[in-house]
Design brief:
With about 190 residues, the chain is mainly alpha-helical. It has one domain: Lysozyme, CATH 1.10.530.40. Helices cover about 55% and strands about 5% of the residues. It has helices at about 5-10, 20-30, 60-70, 75-95, 105-115, 120-125, 125-135, 135-145, 155-160, 175-185; strands spanning about 35-40, 45, 50. A three-stranded antiparallel sheet has the order 1-2-3. A hairpin with a 2-residue loop joins strand 2 (about 45) and strand 3 (about 50).
Length: about 190
C-alpha cells in the first residue's frame, strides 16, 4: 500500500502546491485523536477529522481499533491521506479551473473542502463557488465570511461555527476561517 505524501503526489500529478503545508495546516486545524470521538456536527470521527459515519475505515484499521481501543499514529496519517485525496477530487469538481489557480488558493480551497465536505460547499456556498470560478477572489472571500457577500451584514454560519473573529476584532489567534479567507482573498499565507 502506498501512503503519505507519495500517494498524494501520484494522485494530483501537476499540482505545484506544497502538500506538506496543506497537511500541516489540516493537522493544526483538526487536531489528532487516535480514539473515536464525536465531532462538532455529531459524527463519529477519528484521526484528523476522519468521518466514520460517512466513510468506513479500512478493515485492518477497524480490527486494530476494536482490539486496542484506538488506532496507531501511522493509521491516522493514512486516514489523513485518504481524506486529502477525496478533498482534492471534490475540489476539482467544484472548481474546474483549480489547476489554474495559484498554489496558496489551491491549498485554501482543498482545506475548505476537507473541512466542510463536497455537499456542504456545493449546497451552502453557490455564490462562493461562482466567484472562485470567475476568479473574483475578493467576492469569493466575502461570500465565505458573510451570509450575503454583497451586503456584508451578517457573518456566515461557517465563520461563526469555526470561531472567526467578528469585524473590527482580532484575538491574535489564526482561526481556520480567517486563514482561509485571507489565503483566498490575497493569494498569500496568513501571518
Amino acid at each position: 500500500m502506498i501512503t503519505g505524501l507519495l500517494a498524494i503526489t501520484l494522485l494530483v500529478g501537476s499540482f505545484d502546491m506544497n502538500m506538506s503545508n496543506l497537511r500541516a495546516k489540516i493537522r493544526r486545524h483538526e487536531g489528532r485523536r487516535l480514539a473515536v470521538y464525536i465531532d462538532s456536527e455529531g459524527h463519529r470521527s477519528i484521526g484528523y477529522g476522519y468521518n466514520l459515519d460517512s466513510n468506513p475505515m479500512p478493515n485492518y484499521m477497524h480490527d486494530y481499533l476494536e482490539t486496542h481501543g484506538q488506532i496507531a499514529e501511522y493509521m491516522a496519517e493514512d486516514l489523513l491521506t485518504i481524506s486529502i485525496d477525496r478533498a482534492i477530487k471534490d475540489a476539482r469538481c467544484l472548481f474546474p479551473n483549480l489547476y489554474w489557480t495559484d498554489d496558496v488558493r489551491q491549498e485554501a480551497l482543498i482545506n475548505l473542502v476537507f473541512n466542510m465536505g463536497y455537499a456542504r460547499v456545493k449546497n451552502d456556498f453557490p455564490n462562493f463557488i461562482a466567484a472562485i470560478n470567475r476568479r473574483d477572489f475578493q467576492r469569493a472571500a466575502d461570500e465565505l465570511k458573510y451570509v450575503d457577500g454583497l451586503k456584508k451584514d451578517r457573518l456566515s454560519m461557517y465563520w461563526s461555527q469555526l470561531h472567526g473573529d467578528t469585524d473590527g476584532t482580532d484575538d491574535g489567534i489564526k482561526e481556520r476561517p480567517e486563514e482561509i479567507y485571507h489565503m483566498i482573498q490575497k493569494g498569500a499565507y496568513f501571518v
